[in-house]
Each structure stands twice: as C-alpha cells, then as structure tokens.
Amino acid sequence: MSRERRAWAYLSRVAEPPCPELGALAARVGPVEAAERVLRGAVCAQLARHTEARRDIDCTAEDLDRIDRLGGRLITPDAEEWPALAFTAFNGVDLRRHPAGVAPLALWALGGAQIDEVTLRAAAVVGTRVATVYGEHVAADLAAGLCERGVPVVSVVRHALVGRSSRRIKCFRGSRGRAHMSAKNPPRILQGVPHSLLGDRPIRGGPQKANTP
After folding, report:
1. DSSP β-ladder status, 153-156 and 123-124
2. Whole-model pTM?
3. CB distance 109 to 197 below 8 Å
4. What is the pLDDT of residues 15-65, one digit of tens each?
5. What is the C-alpha to C-alpha distance for residues 117 and 152, in angstroms, rounded to an integer?
6. Contact, 130 vs 158, CB < 8 A?
7. What is the DSSP letter of 122?
8. How far, CA to CA in Å, does 124 sit from each of 28, 151, 173?
9. Residue 4: CA atoms inside 13 Å, Cβ hemisphere, count?
C-alpha cells in the first residue's frame, strides 16, 4: 500500500467535502505532506476548523481494505481514468459565491465503468426526495430512454426518483446503457441494475445520513 494512496484515503474523509482549503493544500504540497500537516494540525485556521473533528481518526487501512474486498478502487488525480476534462468545469468558479464549486479530492468507485469515459457522454437524473407520481413517471421514462440509446445515467441515489428509474433501467440490462450512481453506500435499491457507484468519500456498508436536500 503506497504512502500516496493512504494519504489520499485519509484526506478524502478528514473533512466534510467539498473543502477548497484542503484541495489547495494537497495540490500545493502533495497528498503525503498534506496529510501529515493535517494530522499535526499544522494548517491554516480555516482548514483546522474543517479537520479538527476527524484529523485524529485514521481509518485509511479499513477503508482501503473494504474497497479492495468489494472489487472497487480509489481514483486519484494521477490516475489514467481521472475525469480531468469534466472537472475543468470547476475552473474559474467564484468560490465566494459558490463555495462548493470545487472538484473532489479523490473518487471511490465500484463497478467496471471507466469514469473518464462515462463523463464524456452522460446525463444526470436528479430530483426531490419526495417525488410526485408524475415526477417518478418522467424520471423512469427518461432513464429508460437514455439507457436504451447507450447513454450513461448519472444520479444521486435516492429512493424516490432513482428507485423508479432503476426499476426501468432493469429492462435494458442487455443494452449499452448503464446507471452510474453517486452514493456513499451500495443500497438495495440498485440490486439487479447494471450500475457503478461513485463517491467522494469511502463507500460504506451501512446506512448513513445523506447530505443532499
């Protein structure tokens, strides 16, 4: 297990993402030095506030062992499949107005899809937690139609819109379409759906509180 991989794993969970200050530090001094500075508390006051609650909690070995056992991977900025082109959308974002407008530090992935290829041609299906019947119907038809045409469907895993979308995606398992879900936990709702899971934090096995509205 390389020092760089352990450092990226530590950084990906030490602060609630997105954390522009942590990303800037890692870009400036590298992941290993950034992790060591965070662990020592030798960072600026603002970054210290973001990391003080978790900097002494080192779960990197468990996180990396879990992702390896699940057949997944930790994708870092130096990886060939890092979606650098897609993340250029963050360039020039005014962080004072959009503090969440930064690329993730790293990506935790399950599934065989190459992330850089997926992001070249994909569509997002998102919505509210409490969807109307009409909203569920539209999401289902949209997801099914996209998958039928070989377009990856990207969505945050929610049990309303994504639940209905996932059930319709099952009808197209033989097609090129594939669901690429963003989640911290592989939920039961995706059983039987050809999917990949992608998150900016370690993928866990148990339920966790969502941070999305």
Report:
1. parallel
2. 0.76
3. yes
4. 998 999 999 999 999 999 999 999 999 999 999 999 999 999 999 999 999
5. 10
6. no
7. -
8. 32, 10, 19
9. 11
